Please model this.
Amino acid sequence: MLSRTADSLFWLGRYSERAGNVARGLAATLRMALLTQALSGAEKEWRALMVAAGCEPGFRERHPGMLQEDAVHWLTLDPANPAGIAACIEAARRNARIVRTALTVDMWSAINDTWIEFRRLDGSAIRGDRLPGFLDWVTSRTLLFNGAAADTMLRNDAWRFTHLGTILERADNTARLLDARHAAFAKGAAADAACYAQWQAVLRSVAALRAFQHVYHARLDPQRVAELLILRPELPRSLLACYRRVEQTLQAIALANGGAQGECHRLAGALHARLRYGRIEAIMEGGLHGFLTGVIDENIRLGQEIAASYLNGRAA
Amino acid sequence: MPDLNVADRPASAFDEMNADGGIRPPYAEMARFLEATGQAALEQKRREAEVLFRRIGVTFAVYTEGGDPERLIPFDVIPRILSREEWERLAQGLEQRVRALNAFLADVYGPQEIIKAGRIPAELVLENEGYLPEMVDFTPPGGVYTVISGIDLVRTGPDQFYVLEDNCRTPSGVSYMLENREAMLRLFPGAFARHRIAPVSHYPEELLETLKSIAPPNCPGDPKVVVLTPGSYNSAYYEHSFLADEMGVELVEGADLFVRDKVVYMRTTAGAQRVDVIYRRIDDDFLDPEVFHPDSVLGVPGLMAAYRAGNVSLANAPGAGIADDKAVYPYVPEMVRFYLKEEPILANVPTFMCEREADRDYVLANLDKLVVKLARGSGGYGMLVGPHATEEQRADFAARIRARPGDYIAQPTLALSTVPTLCEDGVEPRHVDLRPFVLFGRTVRMVPGGLTRVALRKGSLVVNSSQGGGTKDTWVLDEAPDEGPVQSQDGRGMTQGDMTQSLGGMTQRMTGPGPAPANDTRAGEG
Model:
């Protein structure tokens, strides 16, 4: 496969996943902001979400305060926010258009229809009562895209690079969302209503609130919430589940491209092993924040190494 | 109800459906169909078509003018219909013309016999911008220069077809020909059932076969073909990706390719992979910064050296543009006689070369009757349609012609044929042209028809999409429509029995002979 095609597919997967993740995170934060106004302050909630998405400095440059209305606009329709839904959809569609030949008709329709529909939206789509519906729509479009890819793509490199982008982005998202609320998981954090709401919000933002009950049949507690999101293999958005698939996918790519492995394979294997044999007690003991920032940094390096091995176009 | 006998048709124009008060035979069934369908339903279909094209993404990109960067070329839902006989004659003429153009290219980059014989002025060829000295004394693989040509035809009467211009560089529009057909199949399955329409959907296979057939002789194994595009911001990007997709080959940009030891490779996830045939959709000037535009980032450094070493084929050959130059155009009939020893089947439009004094005097005296064009230019820009121009516009062009006569040619205003077209006020005649695509490898291949472009503005003769033109599906009828039993398009009728049988093993439980599963059957049925 052309390196440039692989690059576009990889980023198509990432941006499409990111659009859905921003929508999920936003929906959870919106709920927090509404319900826990008195408990922790809505402003802190919006800031945490933006820090997780890496777009807080850009927002501060443009807005002196932290009004909900501005925050929502920044994360949804504002094309100036490179981590916002608008930019993600635009970038996903741009990459899709570049590699149309590698996509199935269903994948193209999923992404192109989203883009067409999105361009028709005006400010009223995110105002008041329409916001939750809008966020559901964005989430459902990402699900549709993932479903179209999973159900219609040949299992060749086009699938592997798209999927690699999707799961790498998903791992990154889980780590960032959890890290944004790491204070509520710290040793000695009061097990009060405010923290409880934080744990709920984290679970909600990765669609895992129900899953928690199915796995643990117990009240939320910080260690179990963290364990579910980091180490449980059965949760598809846990770090372990994501890196297991990252490693498998990279192995399959190596096999299909002459067998040679590189630094990206070593990194992915190491990350996977650390999670597979990790214990939540040790992670909590060593500090959740430090562990998660470590994962986020490794994830960035992994992305760079994947690019070096496959996406940048070696002349060799 | 569409009014099919509109009175305000240009008096002199030949209408391809309504002639001499009657309906011409190829349109017999279509005329009935239009009557029965009615304007409201046609209008509805037009809107559906628009949604369809948007969804598929059949757009041309305009990133320079603001507004919507991806625009639709208006699509008219009423097809343009040719009989098999009409097409066969055109096809013969097209093959003849393309063979002559190709022989001309081989000659002017080789022995230059046509110049020595005094049949075309030497300076017209050798000092032409389209003439590439880099191609002299080099024979491309298979001796083919114009692998893909688009020949623009216009019609003025039942048997009067003229070549308006030849496109021998990187003619575009074939994706519209194919997508228009797909759209029509979806919108009007009933109309297809009533006609025997020659298919066009095999064009990409023919193109791939043609491209493979010009692979370098030393090519190892199955030739690796790629489509080279300037990128996703190019106005024809959809077409580039469409053709690559349909052929199942890689769509590459210049930066995806590199040359080592005069061999072209592409950068893949598995390392470098050799490329044998490049269907390039970028202009000569940008192909290779080492030979042409030094600052071009679209091309591939060293590509021409690899080409000249015989390690890669380019379609079309660089320098093929000399054959479609508007100043060379008047000599094409002469090429047919000179190289093929035949009389041209397709006529040229009489052309006045402003460079020649006698022609220039005539042109300046008759600007109100002529179409004046830049000898080098495309897209309908820099063009004067004399009868429709204002006094000032004509004066302006007269001054321009006097200042640089060599830049201009003029042709009489032809009464281009019209075809019924869905307009705001109903079905009205609009002027059309036709661009068939001719493939030339070991043999000449064509799919029947081509791209019909239509000037949507009332009375307008300019069909370019940048100037208010649209497109139509073009049908070549394998036989005259009959009124016999309805046939499905592929000739295989699907009977109720087949249907029942094919569902037999798939449904849960059957009660009675009907195809409906038991749990769908309402009381009292089956």
